[in-house]
Amino acid sequence: MFPLSAMHRYRATPVTAACVLALTACAPDHDWREIRQPTEGYLVMLPARPASMSRAIDLDGLPVTMAMTGARVGEQSFTVGAVVLPDGDAATRTKAGAAMRTAMVRNIAGRETAAIEVQVPVLAAAGRAATTQSALRIEAAGRVADRPAHMSAQFVARGNRAWQVVMIGPQADPDSAQQFLDSFRVVE
To answer: Largest alpha-carbon pair distance within the chain?
Structure first.
């Protein structure tokens, strides 16, 4: 331990200050962990211990039960919603995906600011990537309880299943959003 007189003489140099700031920036806010939900047909990385629940919803005339698994870190929420559709028709998948997207943007009283198509890996039962599935990734801005809200989400459907992978927080967090959304895998 430094004597008190030595501590008073200590002055942080620009290099020392930069090192302290760099170490502080690396301190993990998120405790990323892989969550496997084989009965729901996916795996994903969540930044904290998850909680799960299910509820009946209506996707534009399609009554389904959505199983939701999510975690919260500070003011950010990370949630995956999974539904089994009444059939595997392409029209049903399209309708479900559009309804999920509309509902999530409406939940933040928002508007979409970006949308791109991405490819989501599809894993075979053995855990190896077998193929990919197209998904739609969006960014949206809005408000929740009179506070700013930002949403990063992706919507994917395959066979008779559909998923929404959604991160909502008070502002954009591109690094956490990318980590979360890129980690999502469909498991067959």
So the answer is: 77
